[in-house]
Amino acid sequence: xxxxxxxxxxxxxxPLTMIGFGFYFFKRGPQTINGFFGYRTSRSMKNQDTWxxxxxxxxxxxxxxxTVLLAASTAAFLYGSLASHPLFSITDDHIFFLQVxxxxxxxxxxxxxxxxxxxxxxxxxxxxxxxx
Length: 132
What we know:
By secondary structure, this protein is mainly alpha-helical. It contains four helices and two strands, in the order H-H-H-H-E-E.
């Protein structure tokens, strides 16, 4: 298999989207709670504080995981398309499946952080007057 630049750009879409939106969510994010755009879960949409917290947390995760995913996807794609005698077969379908899996799994740490920092009504939890 030889290097296909169009396929390579297609493979890079999910990691680059994660990095781009991660940066946006971390720095600014959607300013108002809405049902159309942003990190929308029932816990993140409780109030403005949970909304901002979820976007900042998710943005940080997406920037980090997106960067790692970009490097891993590039390496896997190049290995799969340029290796003359690969030890194992890597297809674009495998890469895409793993990218989508990472994207979906990124919900878990944000929801855990929301649960840790806010009660079920969206009020911040405090320990001896300090936020944790």
